From TrEMBL:
Keyword terms: Apoplast, Glycoprotein, Hydrolase, Protease, Secreted, Serine protease, Signal
UniProt-recorded Gene Ontology molecular function terms: serine-type endopeptidase activity
Role this protein plays: Required for arbuscular mycorrhiza (AM) development during AM symbiosis with AM fungi (e.g. Glomeromycota intraradices).
The name this protein goes by in its record: Subtilisin-like protease SBT1.2
Compartment list: Secreted, Extracellular space, Apoplast
Domain Peptidase S8/S53: 134-579
Ranges of residues in domain Subtilisin-like protease fibronectin type-III: 658-760
Regions of compositional bias (Low complexity) in chain numbering: 214-224
Entry GO CC: apoplast
UniProt organism field: Linum tenue
Family label: Belongs to the peptidase S8 family.
Catalytic site positions: D143 (charge relay system), H212 (charge relay system), S543 (charge relay system)
Signal peptide, first to last residue: 1-21
Length: 765
């Protein structure tokens, strides 16, 4: 009996210790690839995996070490991801060969018409034809997976899988090798950065249970699908930007986000698999490059000749909000299309409010019925103005049209709340935060979205009468009636928080109300209550803009397979549009868009295929650039895995400036002059002469020398210098900005123009 009591107390004590023990946390451990001249694949260790495991064996109990190792990285980074306690972390950090240890971070996910809007058609002179529709290139998409049965991944007419491809179609839940084909050539999933609880109600396979990855993959390289629409709206032929490219999917995002350990593992694998382009509609807050796993992994990808394209983020219009800022990444903001889905609100007093919706109202004549209007009904709970779940009293909204303020909970979710509470229709009203931004949804009940100005009129009307009433008049799909492109309000803005010497975002691309492929296990809203089924749906975000540019990068790679990632990016930046389709400046709200909103401008695939001249950058140039920014030797090693001596590099490269297609100048207090160099490579015809056209930023005198460049041969490199002289006195403001541009114009045809935006910043400190 006494022994049983002792055993019970021992178990109880152990359980109490478990309750108070801190849970293990995942860390990414970066190692020196050759510590003290040691080669880890020597006879001491049979593989890199065993070498990585040896670090854990020195810091955790030997019985537990192999189960703690989540990933072993060899291509995107040298190192591993493992679960550690605080004490184990302290031990590991002290081991020789450990370069850096970072906690695993959670990042977030950030078309039947957009290809036409961007000028892509199957004509012989078109960029599609000239690039072979992207044939031979492989786009790797890191996202929520893929729904392989979607018609956008049909491989009819696709060429064989490229011989360089080394990837696989990973088997898992409801997914096997038969789900891959000549279009979708590979699919993998990465979930070790998550605990098992995080994968509940998700496919433990590359299969997409959220829709985001299916949408982005088809936007980048989806096949041609005729008669595509979303319940009758936005009808047409659906095509990705590079319909002839192959797609490889890497599932790294799950219900509660995308973990950096999984993302790094996917990048590590994709490099070895042989992708040409990596597309990441993923990001978080701006981080120093040495703490940014995407920046570190993408540098290694660029070293392997892979173009990396990332979303800028959806934290606009806040300054300094742009994410994925590394200069070797193409950072993409979002723009609008000239396609609308009008759903006009007719008020009881006869006035009309402009609105938009993709609810298929034309299929239901009863939706035009007039309803009583109600907003924040009496007796409602806290949050009723936002239409939170459980906040709307059924007795007050039964059979009525409910006004819901935008924000906090999802747009489509508000409609579901109204429907469940007995409401008949909904008006989603923008607030001062959203202003006139018009991301539409395929609502579960008759509904429309109105801008902030219209929402003020709406609420004024409700307050002006005892019996406010309204009806929604659905207008289907309208093209060409609005100015576009314009910068999406949510699109993250520069300048770059960690590296203002490089202008970010790089370019903008369509990201508002984009129609693309969708899984058959989800309704078009993505809500679990939505029982409707579609092959396509609409989404908005820089997540949608990113794969547009990934597809265009694939077109350029297909036309110019030997070009570097920097050359591909230069082609897109220097040929971007700064005017909309009406020939007027691209707008950002009610003002012309600046460089921190649109970067070099709106990507133009037609011109990017043959840009004439390019600004090329080698990986070692980025290392020198990091030296000019004041990064330490260990920080540069963490980012690049290169053991650089900045003093030697800067001595060898006096007056170095990164050969970036855009130009960013910073005047700090006491500095009035800056000199920069740029080099241009002729990728056009021999015997081409280019003359410079300059618009100097206000408050700055700019000199360019020489003012003409004569390229006698193809691939010839010529350089020029720029002098910037500040004529502006430092004010009390900590920061002030100005912008201009420099353009090299082909003297023979005047059509080939290589434009670089110029950003000037004055900083008091």
């Amino acid at each position: 009996m006494e022994a049983k009591v002792v055993t019970f107390l021992h178990v109880l004590f152990s359980c109490l210790l478990c309750l108070h023990a801190k849970p293990l946390q995942t860390y990414i451990v970066q190692l020196h690839p050759h510590p003290h001249g040691f080669t880890p694949t020597s006879s001491a260790f049979p593989s890199k995996f065993h070498w990585h495991l040896s670090f854990l064996e020195q810091s955790v109990s030997a019985d537990d070490s192999s189960t703690r190792l989540l990933y072993s990285y060899t291509s995107a980074m040298e190192g591993f991801a493992a679960q550690l306690s605080d004490s184990e972390l302290d031990l590991l950090k002290k081991l020789p060969g450990v370069v850096a240890v970072r906690p695993d971070t959670r990042l977030q996910l950030h078309t039947t018409y957009s290809y036409k809007f961007m000028g892509l058609t199957p004509a012989r002179e078109d960029a599609w034809y000239q690039s072979g529709f992207g044939h031979g290139t492989i786009i790797g998409v890191l996202d929520t997976g893929v729904w392989p049965e979607s018609p956008s991944f049909n491989d009819r007419g696709m060429p064989p899988v490229p011989g360089k491809w080394k990837g696989i179609c990973q088997q898992g839940q409801d997914f096997d090798s038969s789900n891959c084909n000549r279009k979708l050539i590979g699919a993998r999933f990465f979930t070790k950065g998550h605990t098992p609880a995080n994968t509940i109600q998700e496919y433990a396979s590359p299969r997409d249970s959220h829709g985001h990855g299916t949408h982005t993959s088809s936007t980048a390289g989806g096949a041609s699908v005729p008669k595509a629409s979303v319940l009758g709206n936005g009808g047409g032929v659906a095509r990705g930007m590079a319909p002839g490219a192959h797609i490889a999917v890497y599932k790294v995002c799950w219900t509660n986000g995308c973990y950096s350990s999984d993302i790094l593992a996917a990048m590590d694998t994709a490099i070895r698999d042989g992708v040409d382009v990596l597309s990441l509609s993923i990001g978080g807050f701006p981080l120093p490059l040495f703490a940014d796993s995407i920046a570190i992994g993408s540098f290694r990808a660029v070293e392997h000749g892979i173009s990396v394209v990332c979303a800028a983020g959806n934290s606009g219009p806040l300054q300094y909000s742009v994410a994925n800022e590394a200069p070797w990444i193409a950072t993409i903001g979002a723009s609008t299309l000239d396609r609308e889905f009008p759903a006009i609100v007719q008020l009881g007093n006869g006035e009309f409010l402009s609105g938009e919706s993709m609810f298929p109202g034309n299929e239901f004549p009863s939706t035009t019925k007039e309803f009583e209007l109600v907003y924040a009904p009496a007796g409602g709970k806290k949050g009723s103005e936002f239409c939170f779940a459980g906040s709307l009293p059924k007795v007050k909204i039964q059979g009525k049209m409910v006004v819901c303020d935008r924000g906090v909970n999802g747009r489509a979710e508000k409609g579901q709340v109204v429907k469940q509470s007995g409401g008949a229709a909904m008006i989603l009203a923008n607030t001062a935060i959203n202003m006139e931004e018009d991301s539409v949804d395929v609502h579960v009940l008759p509904a429309t979205l109105v801008g902030f100005t219209e929402s003020l009129r709406l609420k004024a009307y409700i307050n002006s009468t005892r019996n406010p009433r309204a009806r929604i008049v659905f207008g289907g799909t309208v093209i060409g009636k609005s100015r576009a492109p314009a910068v999406a309000q949510f699109s993250a803005r520069g300048p770059s928080f960690t590296n203002p010497s490089v202008l970010k975002p790089d370019v903008i691309a369509p990201g508002v109300n984009i129609i693309a492929a969708w899984p058959q296990n989800l309704g078009p809203t993505g809500l679990p209550e939505d029982s409707r089924r579609v092959n396509f749906t609409v989404m908005s975000g820089t997540s949608m803009a990113c794969p547009h540019v990934s597809g265009i990068a694939a077109l350029i790679r297909s036309a110019h397979p030997k070009w570097s990632p920097a050359a591909v990016k230069s082609a897109m930046l220097t040929t971007a549009d700064v005017t909309d389709h009406s020939g007027n400046p691209i707008m950002d709200g009610d003002k012309p868009a600046g460089v921190f909103a649109m970067g070099a401008g709106h990507v133009n695939p037609q011109r990017a295929i043959y840009p004439g001249l390019i600004y090329d950058i080698k990986p070692e140039d980025y290392v020198t650039h990091l030296c000019t920014l004041g990064y330490t030797r260990s920080e540069i090693f963490t980012i690049t895995h290169r053991n650089a001596s900045c003093s030697e590099l800067l001595k060898m490269n006096k007056g170095f400036s990164l050969n970036y297609p855009s130009i960013s100048v910073i005047f700090r207090q006491g500095t009035r002059r800056k000199m920069m160099r740029r080099k241009l490579t002729n990728v056009g015809r021999p015997n081409s002469i280019y003359s410079v056209e300059l618009k100097a930023p206000e408050g700055v005198k700019v000199r360019v020398k020489p003012t003409k460049l004569h390229f006698k041969q193809r691939n010839q490199v010529l350089s020029y210098r720029l002098w910037f002289i500040s004529r502006k006195r430092m004010t009390r403001e900590k920061l002030s900005f100005a912008e201009g541009h420099l353009t090299w114009i082909n003297s023979q045809n005047h059509l080939t123009r290589i434009r670089s935006p110029i950003s000037v910043t004055w900083k008091r400190k």
